[in-house]
Amino acid sequence: MTRLAVVSLALLLAACSDGPATSTEASGTDPGTSNTPQTTGATDDLAPTGTTTSTAGDPTTTGPGDPVTTATTGTTDDLVTTGDPLTGTTTTADTDTTTEPPPEPICTDPPACGDVEATATEHRLELLDGCAFALKPNNFAAGIARADALLARAGTAVTIDDVLGQLNREGVPGLSAYQADRMKNHDYTGFRWNDGDGAVNYWYPQGITGSSDARADGKVSGRRLLLVSWYHKIDREPTDPPARGVRLSLVDITDLDAIRYRHLLLVTPTGDGPDVNFAAANTSSGNALHAGGIVWLGDRLYVASTSAGFRVYDMSRIFETTASDDDTKIGISGGEVNAHTYRYAVPEIGRYSLTDESCPLRFSAVALDRTADPPVFVTAEYMTDLTGRLARWPVDLDSSELVTNGGTVFARDAALAGQSRIQGAVTHEGVYYMSCSSQASQWGRLYRNLPGSMSEITAWPDGPEDLYVERDLKLIWTAAEHPNKRVNVGIPMQGY
């Protein structure tokens, strides 16, 4: 297995010319709680095109803690140290303005897929060849044009500041006694949703991101913000209407004693030109997109699409609905703009999907590492055994786009995690963090590791999901998913 180390004259000339399988993902269940599996195939994530016929005019839808000790055996929870073995190479481009710089080395001899599904050792993280995994963007220019046409037809474009001025729900400071007892050995911070959102059994929180991902200075409009994704969980029969997709909670955590938030709906533009419309963020099977992980970068929101890659939404193209009293309606019809009662909607503008040549990979979660060189998105696979893998995808912070090579995004590297039920993962300053459910009875654990090493363990709540790093405060956050146990909790990062 070789990689191209030196760019030959032939490759330079070629560069200047024109020239996956069905998977099943559980949402992270613990013994004695509801099981929320999602089965999707690659066809569930086909991007909308200009020839799509809109059907969104007026459809109906239904909707105890472990001790604080260092461990390498997976039997106790906690402690600290640092390390940074990840020293990726960087390439300096030719600055000659008259000649295109040669491309960076590309993956010319990807490994066999069996080589990236190796036998795992529990609690041991082993690096894999990232060349096995590749994504390709669809036509973002067309997607942006369609979103703009949708905003023009709706006539109600708003800014993020407009939405922040209309936060209509209050969170509850602190954790529930049940979850606080688990986290008692940590200097935790956090909050709960209001009673209705904390108990609802058909919306489940999954992904988490925030202003520290979105902006270099960690603030949006001068505020500390969180975004949390929820998927619409319904038990469907073949004759049932489709689900209501994915909603976002935009949360102002600037003052943790005065939490305010609002829900927005993610939507998929359909049709084209004067007929452009929108539908919920569902798969072709009628289920909601699982949205197991999210990253807010610049104005773009990346949402994990389990069997395919990412759907990308634009936080600078939010629009307001004009009617919000009928929860069965979505789309523009009869002079009304409906989004299942939600006042604000966020449109999709594009997708990154696994290439035909890529090995299969699940996108159960995603997080941003701004400390890596280059910066990366970290994705994780939820598996009930130890075969779950992580992959890290290079991203350009200025453009908020994944970095392509010849039109393809290759994973910078990958890893066999050696942990089961990974609900979220991130790297930060060289250390891998993995949020895993059902590790000590119903309780989750946050594992910390370095490549080739054995994990250290931190107590983590019941039902933990995706991970988010708030850099300036050195906090690592997760959202817990189960009804009546829901908390959003952050603890100080501990390193390895």
TrEMBL record:
Q: Where is the signal peptide?
A: 1-23
Q: What transmembrane ranges does the database entry give?
A: none
Source domain of life: Bacteria
Q: Where is the composition biased (Polar residues)?
A: 20-38
Residue ranges of region Disordered? 19-110
- Keyword line: Signal
- Report biased composition (Low complexity) as residue ranges: 39-99
Q: Does the keyword Oxidoreductase apply?
A: no
Q: What is this protein called?
A: Secreted protein
